[in-house]
Design a protein that fits this description.
Layout (H helix, E strand, L loop, with lengths): L2 H27 L16 H34 L2 H10 L5 H34 L7 H33 L3 H23 L1 H4 L2 E3 L4 H13 L5 E5 L10 E4 L6 E5 H6 L2 H16 L2 H23 L4 H4 L8 H41 L2 H14 L8 H7 L5 H9 L1
Parallel strand pairs: 2-4
Antiparallel strand pairs: 1-2, 3-4
Helix pairs in contact: 1-2, 1-13, 2-4, 3-4, 4-5, 5-6, 6-11, 8-10, 10-13, 10-14, 11-13, 14-16
Keywords: Hydrolase, Membrane, Metal-binding, Metalloprotease, Protease, Transmembrane, Transmembrane helix, Zinc
Organism: Aquimarina gracilis
Protein name: M48 family metallopeptidase
């Protein structure tokens, strides 16, 4: 294969992936006006349902436009040798391959973040604002952006520097050491994410003593779930949408409730949601997902090690000096079809786990309270009640509301 033919293969992959995603969005949008299934007839009042459809259509149109603009920018970047230009800028500062790689990705990531800021701003302060979801101030928006960039430089830059160093030291064997690094990092994030990352963006406070805390602790004791902490996070400073999540491993387990969840649901419904999260832990889903994530990362790194030294990867992007960072860009696009397949498999596994966690909550707590909570959360988040089956199969990590309710009622 010549550099020129590889270049056009990259372009073809980018365009095909875009077309497939766009067709799925179009198919999905064609079902927005479908009649609500009888089992979900009590989720929305008619006026609210019309509003939810308008919200979905607004997001759909916005995504089509923004993704089309992103595609055009990316294609222009390829055809006008953007990667070669950035590589040249990075090399003008240093001859050290690790420094060059860090500068190269730093310029791309920060540039990409800056270019995506207008679309993020429009989505939050126009669409989300229009439909009553946004609670974020413009000050918070830009502070979040700055914090994200700083964290990307520190955490992402640190990991990338180590991987580049492994490659310099060991050549093709770098993937073994890189996998070890990623594994340690993934486990650490699972254990300490709530303590290290969340406080950078949100305030967490212990759930105050009272009926809700007593009910949660009584349920945890009943099912043998050793719970260290229950926290409330100030999600309402950004959005009205509600959530709850379980984090940590071993003695670091904690449950975090969004303040919007406490506002929207009654105590029985909140505990039912938490029973679902406990179900994930009891069924070892957290461990299985961790193992699968590490295994997929190992597979990707191994494939990368087979091709990264090939100068054709850099030549395809018209870069004269072959390098790890340029090869990584080319490989990432070539690997994207495989990534789509592994993502599909992970979504199938995830949906299976969601059913199992629902069943655990049904069997150990209260089926009707969980159904009620799912309906309220779907209503308050304007969830799509009639998605196209192809969209669900390919992109949904959770079953649809209808599928979950049918499963709970079995």
């Amino acid at each position: 294969m010549t550099p020129n033919s590889l270049f056009y293969l990259l372009i073809a992959i980018i365009i095909i992936v875009f077309i497939i995603d766009s067709l799925l969005d179009i198919l999905n949008a064609m079902h927005y006006d479908d009649a609500i299934p009888e089992e979900l007839s009590d989720v929305y009042p008619e006026e609210e349902y019309r509003k939810s459809i308008a919200y979905k259509k607004a997001n759909y149109k916005f995504k089509l436009v923004s993704s089309s603009i992103s595609l055009c920018i990316m294609l222009l970047f390829f055809f006008f040798d953007g990667f070669a230009v950035i590589d040249g800028v990075a090399r003008s500062f240093s001859d050290n391959s690790i420094v060059v790689g860090l500068l190269f990705f730093g310029i791309i990531m920060i540039g990409s973040d800056i270019l995506s800021t207008p679309t993020a701003y429009y989505r939050i302060f126009v669409i989300e604002e229009k439909f009553g979801f946004n609670k974020m101030s413009k000050k918070t928006f830009f502070i979040d952006k700055i914090k994200s960039i700083i964290m990307m430089i520190i955490v992402g830059g640190g990991l990338l520097a180590l991987i580049l160093w492994f490659y310099e030291l060991t050549g093709k064997s770098f993937w073994i050491y890189a996998l070890g690094l990623v594994t340690v990092f993934t486990v650490a994030m699972n254990m300490f994410y709530a303590k290290l990352i969340v406080p950078v963006f949100n305030k967490q406070t212990p759930l105050e003593p009272g009926e809700l805390r007593d009910t949660i602790e009584a349920y945890s004791k009943k099912v043998g779930f050793q719970l260290k902490d229950i926290f409330v996070i100030d999600g309402s400073k950004r959005s009205t949408k509600a959530n709850a999540y379980f984090s940590g491993l071993g003695s670091e387990k904690r449950i975090t409730l969004y303040d919007t969840l406490i506002k929207d649901l009654n105590n029985e419904e909140i505990v039912a949601v938490l029973a679902h999260e406990v179900g994930h832990y009891k069924k070892r889903h957290v461990i299985v997902n961790l193992i699968l994530s590490v295994a997929l990362t190992g597979l990707t790194l191994w494939f990368l090690s087979l091709f990264i030294a090939n100068p054709l990867l850099s030549a395809a992007l018209n870069v004269e000096i072959p390098s790890f960072h340029i090869g990584l860009i080319t490989f990432g696009i070539l690997y994207s079809p495989i990534s789509e397949i592994t993502g599909l498999i992970m979504n199938i596994v995830s949906r299976t786990f969601e059913y199992q966690a629902d069943n655990y909550a049904k069997n150990t707590y209260n089926r009707e309270a969980l159904i009620s909570s799912l309906k309220k959360l779907s209503k308050n988040n304007f969830s799509n009640l009639t998605p196209h089956p192809a969209m669900v199969f390919i992109h949904y990590s959770h079953p649809t509301l209808l599928q979950r309710i049918k499963n709970l009622k079995e």
